[in-house]
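Supplementary Data S3. Sequence and structure tokens for construct A.
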Amino acid sequence: MNAASRQQAKLSLLPLLLFVFLFLGTGLYLQSQGVAYAFYQLPGPVAIIPALVLAVWLNRAPIAQGIDVLVKGAGNNNIITMCIIYLLAGAFAAVAQASGGVDAVVNAGLSLVPGTLLLPGLFVISAIVATAMGTSMGTIGALAPIAVGLSQQAGLEPALVAGALLSGAMFGDNLSIISDTTIAATRTQGAEMKDKFRENFKIAMPAALITLLLFASLTSSDSAITVKEFNWTGVLPYAAILVLAIAGMNVFLVLLLGIVLAALQGAFFADYQLANLGKDIFKGFANMQEIFLLSMFVGALGEFVKQQGGLAWIAGHIAALAGKLALAGNKAQQLAIAALVFISNLCIANNTVAIVIAADVSKDLAEHNNISPKRSASLLDIFSCISQGLVPYGAQALLLGASFSLSPWDVVTQSYYCLILAAAALIAISLSKHQAKAVTATS
């Protein structure tokens, strides 16, 4: 990378910094001034527009080419996939609410689970579903409507409940063998999925147990719970989508079936009018407008950073710094892999794409420093998920923020599992022994 390229790479990070400064800075400042709904005073899709304008200007190409880059990033396959999940999750939540399904599930849950176990219970359920589905977004889309009602009935802090859901979802996303992050990490590093799972499990499970105890301690023993009369048939749509999700059905089909089942349940067993189905679905779409737009704009911003070499510049500096650190064995290089994927994800807010971007440099570091493929794959997956669970402009935080009517910042500040997992992973690196060079697997 010549001097001009290095300069452009560094400049490509400025739009991202501008967006973070405007979005988080404005929200935090207004919150410190006691302004209600501080993070809603400057919505994310508006805060990112100056950053996109700056990115197009820094692109050093005709404006038409800059717009092409913007459209390419916004239309990325992963971004559009997330946006469709947003719409379907919003539609399901709206139809379930209108047909009485949410109330039924809330009261059924309250009748079965003691108030003192609601938070750890939600964490466990979210973790199980996400591990089975392999997607944190699908898990949050399915469970958020239930959790919103539970938090209201039990008198629990909504941000804490959202944090429990996010924590469990990121646990499953990180550990699941069918997750996009697992597939990307193992394929790019040449590791076997079962080996990567075992490596991950040793780090993720202790972090999950500590998180479980933490959520149990944070649940007030005197939570005021009132169980209202309900019809068990209202639970059927939720039970169906959870069973189908765990069985491995595509998340799009799961949510579509959830919408249909919620409507039919309401029509046959409640007073729901099917004539209102179209309006309710559209209402659910409208509820997801902000996160839909912000996700597309973040994807566009990430494309500029990637094309202009910003991520490659970061990778080069991290690799060089690792070479200078005087740590025993290959600990410095393991930290470099972790930092590379963590920072990459901060730039693009997509953990799967962050793994793909960081993969080549990480594999090179692993091969030249006797880091086994299962360890490098595990580090990529763990630290990309940690980062994704902590960025307030990430898809998971945005969806939970929209579902609970919270700022995404409030959501990520309660993402305790990601923080505990980060500590557990750093401890694992510090205690690791120098490994014999492993043979690269083929799948």
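Construct B, processed identically:
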Amino acid sequence: MSKKTQTLYIFISLLIVVAMGFFFKYYSGPAHKWFNDYGAAVFYEIFWCLFAFWFFRSPSATIQIPVWVFIITCILEFLQLWHPLFLEQFRATLIGKWLVGTTFVWWDFPHYALGSVLGWLWLRQLQIKGYAKKSQS
């Protein structure tokens, strides 16, 4: 697969993940609490894996990206225990809520792990698809 084609797949994947993430975040049907609070977190992880893969596409990055995304989001979760004025002001904005969250919850960690594993599987598929196309050429 050419870099241009792989970039297109990544872009389409990002659009799908963003749409699903917002759908989960603002879903109001049955089990909406889980979808809003935890299901969206799974897509948050996948989004960051795909976003990083846009820039780093090596086979080793396919493994390293989800690990780093998981570590960084866990750090961000712990930062929710810290309440300096500048961080509270950022969290008060919509983008601040989306990026760094507002409330520390232990139950977020398994969902971050799930999202990172699913992100790794997604990146692996993009990587495998790329190598399969190259070998057929």
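The chain has six helices and no strands. The CA atoms of residues 90 and 96 lie 5 Å apart.
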